[in-house]
UniProtKB/TrEMBL annotation:
<dbReference type="InterPro" id="IPR036291">
    <property type="entry name" value="NAD(P)-bd_dom_sf"/>
</dbReference>
<dbReference type="Pfam" id="PF08240">
    <property type="entry name" value="ADH_N"/>
</dbReference>
<dbReference type="InterPro" id="IPR020843">
    <property type="entry name" value="ER"/>
</dbReference>
<keyword id="KW-0521">NADP</keyword>
<feature type="domain" description="Enoyl reductase (ER)">
    <location>
        <begin position="10"/>
        <end position="321"/>
    </location>
</feature>
<protein>
    <submittedName>
        <fullName>NAD(P)H-quinone oxidoreductase</fullName>
    </submittedName>
</protein>
<keyword id="KW-0560">Oxidoreductase</keyword>
<dbReference type="InterPro" id="IPR013154">
    <property type="entry name" value="ADH-like_N"/>
</dbReference>
<dbReference type="GO" id="GO:0070402">
    <property type="term" value="F:NADPH binding"/>
</dbReference>
<dbReference type="Pfam" id="PF00107">
    <property type="entry name" value="ADH_zinc_N"/>
</dbReference>
<dbReference type="InterPro" id="IPR011032">
    <property type="entry name" value="GroES-like_sf"/>
</dbReference>
<dbReference type="InterPro" id="IPR014189">
    <property type="entry name" value="Quinone_OxRdtase_PIG3"/>
</dbReference>
<dbReference type="InterPro" id="IPR013149">
    <property type="entry name" value="ADH-like_C"/>
</dbReference>
<dbReference type="GO" id="GO:0016651">
    <property type="term" value="F:oxidoreductase activity, acting on NAD(P)H"/>
</dbReference>
Amino acid sequence: MRAVVVPEPGGVDALKVVDRPDPEPGPGEVQIAVRAAGINRADLLQRQGFYNPPPGATDILGLECSGVVSALGDGVTGFDVGDEVAALLSGGAYAETVVAPAGQVARVPAGVDLVDAAGLMEVACTVWSNVVMVGRLQPGETLLAHGGGSGIGTMAIQVAKELGARVAVTVGGPEKAEVCRQLGADLVINYKEQDFVEVLKDADLRPDVVLDIIGAKYLEKNVDVLATNGRLVVIGLQGGTKAEIDLGALLAKRASVSATALRARPPAEKAAIVAATVENVWPMIEAGAVRPMIHTTFPLDEVGAAHQVLEDSSNVGKVLLTTSAS
Ligand SMILES: NC(=O)c1ccc[n+]([C@@H]2O[C@H](COP(=O)([O-])OP(=O)(O)OC[C@H]3O[C@@H](n4cnc5c(N)ncnc54)[C@H](OP(=O)(O)O)[C@@H]3O)[C@@H](O)[C@H]2O)c1
């Protein structure tokens, strides 16, 4: 098979398409003929040498894919060869064949194109596990999602609206702002021109849950803007890892700060998240209330150009890589 690896960390030119043997499914694993892979910001960090695969994971890039089941390992039930599926992976999606633990594989929701399904798993699982399982967002509450135009943000807006919450987002420009509004965001804040704390306070809209992808740079502001009993959930560190926190402010609000990462979790935890996501988000997708937001697709050979789109932050939603099976 053809697959994308990074022999030496670096810029987009560090991505190399190489030949590798097809991975064989072990017990409990599903082999998938990959139709498309989703690109995640974490892949850019891995390419630059800042985010190594967890122990035991392949060095082939890619945390999510869609495709067709091509073989089943011992003990796998619930899937047949030929099923159209999407998978959450610890690596290996930028390839023509991948294996995944069966608990991290799900049938493509009805009505979703097989290529587009490559952009579903990572964002749907991240949003459901953090906004709902950790953040406990309730109907009538307010979610603030930073980076509303990102792959994660476009899913967070749709899921939170479907749950009956109000949604505020931050974005860096008018194009992303417009898409966020179309997806149902109630308040869109251009963080390059406005202070999101001031805007939310002026609108009397203190968030009960903040889904944060910035980290240190926004910590103080996020705690400041949280509602009483608010939950700040940090999932990205684009603005750094270290900052001071005013525990007095947290205490006075009876607020909490959590931080999670999906990739390094044990398979049983990932399987529980996939199961909860399929149970709750897949019906929203099948009802037409939530859809994968696909910005663009590139063939596997143009993986460097695909990474450049995320590098430039010119994507609204997901960027995908397709294999020749597409
Ligand atoms: N912990 C986990 O399990 C997990 C899983 C998946 C993703 N993530 C994280 O979630 C984030 C989004 O991932 P993705 O793959 O969806 O990436 P993406 O599509 O590349 O989005 C990154 C976004 O960050 C926004 N951004 C940059 N600076 C900002 C700022 N100061 N304020 C608000 N937004 C800002 C950009 O928006 P503008 O262009 O509008 O500035 C862009 O939309 C990444 O940080 C990623 O590491 C975490």
